[in-house]
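Supplementary notes for students who missed Thursday's class. We covered one full example, reproduced here. Read the sequence, then the structure, then the short commentary at the end.
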Amino acid sequence: MQKLFRRLLVILIVVLLGWFLFGGNTPDSFHLKFSGMSDLGVQQIIVTEGNKQHIFAVDSSNWDIISDYDIEVLSGSLFGAVELDLLLANGKMLRLQKMEYKVGKANYVTEYEGRLKYVKAHWQ
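Structure (token representation):
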């Protein structure tokens, strides 16, 4: 009986050690890459997922015309949809509802004729 208990204990330790070393590498965030909007004067980016809200203060000096702007959003789900709000320097707000995301992936976001649009970056 003691041998069986020891074997079970060793197996449990090996499984837990393997899970901590290899199982915890699942990404828990997705990226939003804002393209071609350096002239809008974005001051704040608000990402709402259910009852959670992520607010990013934007430093306009980091919004490069060439490389644009990239934020990482933490998420509790592997995929879903969020609401995106951009607060502009002129007081206006641009909103994008039901933007799909997938953890570990990215979306490109841009403004066209006063509306936000997004494209999934290389994921289905």
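Commentary. DSSP finds one helix and eight strands in the chain. The longest strand covers residues 79-88. If anything here is unclear, bring it to office hours.
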